[in-house]
Structure prediction request, 86 residues.
Amino acid sequence: MIYTKYFSGLIAQYGRPNMSDTQFRLLMNIVHLEGRLEGINTIKRKLEGTREAHRFDIEYFNVHKKLTELTGNLPPESLKSRLFVT
Prediction:
């Protein structure tokens, strides 16, 4: 959850950023997708060593693909420059 932690820290330190509605939706989608990935990882850890362990691999792949499309695999600092209006 690198983006979520990074942006959460920025907001805690500097307050609410000046963002357009589109930029805010993008940020919320990124946070949501990272949360989904975290949830899938939690389930996979609990199923480790069972026949069901790989049941969520395709879902993980699809969610990770969407996250990559939104972030462009940019580090959080670079994504911030694209998102926040200064």
Remarks:
- Residues 2-83 form one domain.
